[in-house]
# Entry
Amino acid sequence: MQANTLVSVIIPTYNRAATLGRAIDSILEQTYSHTEVIVVDDGSTDDTPTVLSRYGERIRVVVQKNAGPAIARNRGIALAKGEVIAFLDSDDYWLPTKLERQLTVMGKAGSVVCCVCNCKVLYKDGSTTSTFQIANSVPGCESGLLLNPAEVLLTRFLLFCQAATIQREVLERIGYFDENLRFGEDYELPMRLALEGPWAIIRNELVVYHASSPGSWAETAVREHLRLHQDLLRMRQQIFLRIQRDPRHARLVTLARRELRRAKRQATCAKLMASTVAGAAALGRLLHVFERLNLAIFRRTSLYPKLVIKELI
# Structure
């Protein structure tokens, strides 16, 4: 990774005028300054244009009709000039050394697909955790080379968009976000990236993620529970077929099939819970409890993949 590598940072935003400036400032105040900031206004109806106008030529602004984050991010990628691509949601922000740390680690690692860091998660009640803790994926070293990202991503979700710096060349080779997914597009793309080779990983929390922002993914997912699991099932089906068809990934077939079956069961639970048939919702909730118990047991077995990391000195 060269010292003058251009990083294109893409912010998709929709009606987040109150927090958008904080997100943009956190990029402009990075200790690594060779960046371009592309804000894709996804049809905002609030004071977003006024906020954006304050930055003048320090940022690039694209305005489109409301189409969702996948399309907004893809439009930003298409316009980006950087060799490295990064994303930030407009209700979150980066700590000042994020990009510098990530590019340094990518340079040490050599040829890697991307670099992902930890994130501090803030909840409405003031409690905090980290995304690596949630995903049971805390590295044993400060920075390293994650040698089995596909096994890890098949079995847990890592907050990706706010936390990753990605080689543009890899994105061009495998494609951008799946625009047909309302949910899970930020899981499906990382899964494809995980099949491309090792990742660099940083244990430190370099992003602040607000889990309870109005209109957040979490809030929408609760409201559209059935659509969420339908999309996650479709994503799992696509990934399974990709793995099954490629002899290079033969060792992942059993694990991918296990997770596909789990996704099918979870989609069935969601369908029952959304049903108006007498007793169906109660049955769905009961099966959902069993699924959570089954997952908890799986995570305590030897079949659950552990992170395989080579420490970077």
